[in-house]
Structure prediction request, 153 residues.
Amino acid sequence: MSDNETTDDATGSDEATGSDEPTFEAAEYADGTITYPPHTVSPNGAERVGTVDLRAYEGRVLTWTTSTATPPGVREPNTLAIVEFDMGEEYDGPAVRALGQIAEREDGSEETFDVEIGDHVEPVYAAELREPGAGIREPESQEWNGFRFRPVE
Prediction:
């Protein structure tokens, strides 16, 4: 198994740290590659051997955009970024990337942080990425939590 393995349980909680916060789970495969989102096999057909918690890694903003016409229940405006994670010098597999919202400032303004291409960010847990009661789906039919990205100072 991998030195990076953090969890394989159904909840995704991090038992090693005692945190009830879900992990930002990527998959690691026998050929050494890592993918997010996780898949059963790697892009090269290798078997999945473990998981990697992306909370342990910094990312870099590759590009970003702000949507002003968002789906029901999603904050407006909504800044999104494609982030590439720095998996360390020993990792030589394909880039590990994720698309996600930019976190809100913690000053009570409800504004998101400003980001630029090349900024370093870290994933932060968000209990609600959108309002569960908005839209046509039953709130119990899907998960509303996930991760956003916050600039690293």
Q: What stands out?
A: The beta strands are 13-14, 19-22, 25-29, 34-35, 48-53, 59-67, 78-85, 96-101, 120-126, 146-151.
